[in-house]
Amino acid sequence: MTDVVDSGELLRRIQRARACAREELRAWRARSGELERADPDAAREARVRSLAYEAVLRALDEIVTPGRAGVRR
C-alpha cells in the first residue's frame, strides 16, 4: 500500500466501506432470523457476524461524522 490519496478519495473509500458494512449487516441479520429455528448454532454465528459489522459501521460513521453517534443516544 504505497498509494498516496487525497482527502476526497479517502472519504470516498470510507463511504464505500460504510455501504458495504451496512449491506453485510443487513444480510447477516436476515440470515440470523432465517436460521433461528432451523439451525440455532448457525443463527448464533450470524448474530455474532452482524455484531461485528455493526461495530465496523459505527467506527466508520464516527470517522465521517465525529460525535454524531453520541448525540443520537
Largest sheet: none
> Secondary-structure element sequence?
HHH
List how many beta strands DSSP finds.
Answer: 0
Low-confidence stretches: none
The termini sit apart by 37 Å
Query: Structural class of the helices, strands and pairings?
Result: mainly alpha
- Nearest-angstrom radius of gyration? 16 Å
The tally of helices reads: 3
Mean pLDDT: 90
Q: Strand percentage, roughly? A: under 5%
Portion in helices: over 70%
Shape: elongated
Summary keywords:
73 residues; elongated; 3 helices; 81% helix; mainly alpha
What does this structure look like?
- The protein has 73 residues and is an all-alpha fold.
- Helices cover 81% and strands 0% of the residues.
- Helix 1 runs antiparallel to helix 2.
- The mean pLDDT is 90.
What's a quick, concise take on this entry?
The chain has 3 helices and no strands.
